[in-house]
Amino acid sequence: MPTSIRLGNSEERSALCPVVGIGASAGGLEALEQLFAHVPPEPGVAFVVVSHLAPHLPSLMPELLAKQTALPVSAAEDGARVEPDHVYIIPPNAALTLEHGALRLEARDDRTNLIDTFLRSLAEERGERAIGVILSGTGSDGSLGLKAIKEHGGVAMAQDLASAKYNTMPRTAIDAGQVDWILPVEAMPAKVMEYVARIQSGAGPVDGAHDATRTREHDLLMHQLCGLIHRRTGRDFSRYKRSTMERRVQRRIHVLQQHSLEDYVDLLKNTPAEVDQLFQDLLISVTQFFRDPELFEALARDVLPRILADRAPDDPVRVWVPGCATGEEAYSIAMLLAEAPRTATLGAKIFATDIDDEALEVARAGRYPETIADRVSPERLERFFAPRPNGGWQVRKEIRDMCVFSTHSIISDPPFSRLDLISCRNVLIYLESDLQRTVFPLFHYGLRPGGFLLLGPSENVTAHPELFTAVDAKQRIFQRKEAKVSVRFPVGGLGLSGRRIAEAPQGHEPAARDQSLTRTLERLILAVYAPPAVIVRGNGVIVFVSGQTRKFLELAPGAAGINVLEMASKELRPHLHVLLREATSKRQERIQRGVSLPVDGRVQPVDIVVRPLLELGADSDLYAVIFYEAGTSLSSEQAEAEGRTPAIGDAHAAALETELRSTRENLQTAVEELEVANEELKSTNEELQSSNEELQSANEELQTSKEELQSINEELHTVNAELSRKLQELDKANSDLQNLFASSRIATVFLAGDLTIKRFSPEASQLFRLIDSDVGRDITDIVPKFAGGDLVADVERVLQTQSASQREVHLLDADVWYLQRIQPYRTTDNVAVGVVITFVDITDLKSARDSARRLAAIVESSHDAILALDDRAAIVTWNLGAELMFGHTAKEATGRTIDFLAVPGESSPFASAFAAALRGERSPPIEAFLQRKDGSRVRVLASMSPITDTQGSRAAVSWIARDITEHERDRQALRESQERFHAVNAADRKKTEFLALLGHELRNPLAPIRNAIHYLRRAVPTPTPEIQRAVEMVDRQAAHMARLIDDLLDVSRISSGKILLKKRREDLVAVVRTVVEDHRAEAARAGVSVQFTAREPLPVNGDAVRLSQCISNILGNAFKFTDPGGRISVVLERRGDTAVVRVSDNGIGMDPETLARAFEPFAQSDVHLARGRGGLGLGLSLVKALVELHGGTVTATSAGQGRGTEVSIRLPLVASAPSETEVDEPELPGGPDDRRHVLVIEDNEDAAQSLGMLLDMWGHTAAIADSGAAGVEAALADPPDVVLCDLSLSGSMDGYEVCRALRAASSTAGALIIAMTGHGLASDTENVKKAGFDLHLIKPVDPEALARIIHTSPLVHAPG
């Protein structure tokens, strides 16, 4: 967690505290929450959040952010002072600024960029204490505000693009180069605290040097820094204004967290990218359209009319805008010229130059944000700008063609010439004053006579009043004066400075002498201590003079000359002749010592040195002539005494003197003659010089023409570069277009105004029969492959109305839909010259739209209240169910928060669920009382869920409520019904037990009756007709009675869930197909389709009726829980030795909890939609019971709610047909025999006797016992082959005990023991089997069946 920073008292803290301006838009709430969650409790800074809010809806942002930070969070109020450790949130429908430490609110203008507006005011108010932050959002708002903050010395941050949900806003700021730090949101508070700590710590590392040693070290480091920039960029900033330079360097040191200037210079040496960044920071780009409107009014009123007056038709206006930055000022002047009446006929060319290549790229493109509408009038916007499709404005081509943008430096490149106007505003203020004075002669040279110069408010021409005169001093408009001025092309001061810095040693050096001090010292030494000297050419012409040379040189009579041989005194002249001749011939230093020079009546010994300046090159023709005074001057007497004059009394010397004098006279005569000849030569030379001057004048004119040609060539080079760049851009645009056609997969056709084809994309061949040679053909010659409207009529309508058209079309040979769009083809001048036709595949979209329409119809027709809420819990949608439930119309409810439904005096029951939904979490349903419009209360069950868009971002919250007032009554009624059901169930069990007992008691009398009838038919072979009728009557009524008893017992079986099956070999495919076909009509009524699939017959052993009942129940569920338009699939297949039936649908599906209890009785889904579709939940439980009776299994699967259900039945396959008998009557092994010993154990005398009679008649021996004990005793005494035993025997032993006893005895263990009873329940059958009986026969037993069983039974004991 970053540490806190504290300031002084309250007023000081308010005035000095840094302010963090945060801009956010779409997706910004989550980023803001993360940011403030990492802000320390007392950061010592103020935070102002500017977000794009709905203008007419209240904002919940202060409440939401207050939960994330301990700082006070409040909505901004007009006039509120900005205090540290506070967070201020912009209110809806307002524009926010910062003025004099207080917040100012104004009504929001639709054209206003809220974030840019606040950040600009923050930059002007706080300077380096302004910190701009751009978070997630769409659009470009904020980038210009960050630019203003950086211009005023502040810093800028942007959210890391990977973590921003919508990265358009931070991306725009980053691409514009306005961001110092790109960070994840959680790292921003720490970086803010680090930066604030540095600026609060006092003087920065750049301006903190005080003593002389530190000052020299500091200056050396700054020179090294300038040298690094010069080597990297070719631009020298050594004479850039020192205060501005150091302020910009200090800002970079703060941004990079460097400890000192020395560390920063070391960083620059190793990081070329930082040199580029510093270079961009030094290029202060502060420009706007029509900045200082009064100036442009004066320009249009007073200057342009004078420039345009009395001009030749072929003389276009020429304007130079040095330091044009991103081109706003150049375009402003171009617009003024375009508005002038004569510009159209004369033409105009504006040369806009800068050393910032990135800014020039922006200027050339001519694309500007929407905020320029604040500076440009609506009339000029409409005339000179075209709106861009994605926002912003494009300068029209006619204005762009007037401007030529090129890289050019006013201090190192030749100026433009023959200019009518130079606008150099706010450029010179960043240069040192001596450099400013150097630039004005360049401007004077570049302007035509009477041309005009525009300067910034803080700039003036006071250093050169002879060059310019003021036209409007207030607006800084000046006019060129006629004056002679020396101009050098180019100015080399900065280049020399740059080379000097580049050659300075790197690393840590001894303290360097101050350059101005050095120059002063050098001048002092030269003036006081250096000997007089001149620099001459080989012919003696003087080039440079140093020191006082009047003792040695003087002007000769006659025409003035600057030759040292002519100006030297006559005592020195011969020596100079000899020395200069020898020095030029031998290229060596020559010295003449002790030459006596008369000076003011005294004699001065002089040493003369002539030295070639070989340091300037071996071929240099310059020589240094130095005069050394060899000691002090002497009087005449001292000179004679030292032998510097000849002795007077010496005769020989006098003769020599006479001879010398004669010689001198002769020499003088020769010299005079030579001088006469020289004069003649000089006269000739003067004539030649005059001719030379004329030639030089002509040469100067040629030089001037050359310079003008050079300027023109520079302009042509610039224009050529511009054209080359445009050609490159055109090639790139063409390549982009080709790649767009190849990759976009959108069919596109370009048509000219006469409906001829200009171009088409490859995909267009899917809709038209087009080939490459069709370009230039009329579109009416091409037959489209789609239907839907008249294409030619649509194109002609678009050409006529100039408005776009669109319709949906359908391919003739495929189920594919396209959206056909026809738009005018417009040139850059917004002139329509054709149309562009695009076809977008909307097949999936159309399908999704149809699904959405159906879903909307379901929502609207639902009786549940279904709402959509925004991030403030305000109601966005309100369906009919909500209107019926609460009484409010959609118009009354929309825009209000969901809390308005809460019962007065009670808190909202949905606050926590809504907050969870905003976080993407789901909450359990909430049961609450809400209030209707009429004041009554309604009990609802409501749930809230997040709604996400296609990118997975939370877009809204759904709120679904069901009126459970009646449901609550129904639940109470259901509980009461269940209690009644349990009571009825208990009664039913008693009824079942009663029926079972009744069946036993009724079957017992029937047994002897059936036996007796069978006996009579066998015993009386030829009965009388009356007896025959009586027997048949009794047999018929006995059978009828048996069926009645069976029917009565079947009721008991069904109620207890036990059903007897009538199995036989069945083709499962045929059974299921019959059921599906029987349900076709029901499927049609439900609006669903049923698909049946089976490849081969699947034989099973089953009850066709019961199997059909299972399939019918499953299909019925599928019909109920599949929406109209859904699909049901019935598939039969073989898997090993198992037949599988799969019934699947795409209906509402089941959640895991519902799926787990799907086969339980009364089991249904809790989903409101399932509850509303009817049924008691018995269908699948009945299917499960029936399938398991067939020896099979049934399962259900579902991927979840809304994703359909599949029910699968698995039954064993059979290879051969089963027996036609009941499964309760298995075949018994064994062979027939003549006689069996049968023991009958029956306590009903008639039943026992009748069985005995039948056995005797069948030829068996029968023994009868009337109790269980007697039966066991008889069996042990004479072991039987077959035992017929009743279960309900009187006495101590029942039939079960009898069977167990017989099985326990070895003699009777192998006998066939048959239970004959009136108890026919499944539980009775199970008990019989467990006790050891071989067969269970239910009374009355069919005598023939009994006879067959006994005859086929095994013979256990051979007859004795």
TrEMBL record:
Residue ranges occupied by any CheB-type methylesterase domain in the UniProt entry: 19-199
Cross-referenced Pfam families: CheB_methylest, CheR, CheR_N, HATPase_c, HisKA, PAS, PAS_10, Response_reg
Signal peptide: none
Entry keyword Membrane: no
Domain PAC: 924-976
Keyword Methyltransferase: yes
InterPro entries cross-referenced by the UniProt entry: Bact_Chemotaxis_MeTrfase (IPR050903), CheB_C (IPR035909), CheR_C (IPR022642), CheR_MeTrfase (IPR000780), CheR_N (IPR022641), CheR_N_sf (IPR036804), CheY-like_superfamily (IPR011006), HATPase_C_sf (IPR036890)
Positions of post-translational 4-aspartylphosphate modification: D1286
Reaction(s) this enzyme catalyzes, per UniProt: L-glutamyl-[protein] + S-adenosyl-L-methionine = [protein]-L-glutamate 5-O-methyl ester + S-adenosyl-L-homocysteine; ATP + protein L-histidine = ADP + protein N-phospho-L-histidine
Domain (PAS) ranges: 851-921
Active-site residues (renumbered): S25, H52, D141
Ranges where the Histidine kinase domain occurs: 997-1215
Keywords: Chemotaxis, Hydrolase, Methyltransferase, Phosphoprotein, S-adenosyl-L-methionine, Transferase
Region ranges (Disordered): 682-707
Biased composition (Low complexity): 686-697
Domain CheR-type methyltransferase: 228-484
Domain Response regulatory: 1237-1354
NCBIfam families: sensory_box
Identification of the protein by name: Chemotaxis protein CheB
Species of origin: Nannocystis radixulma
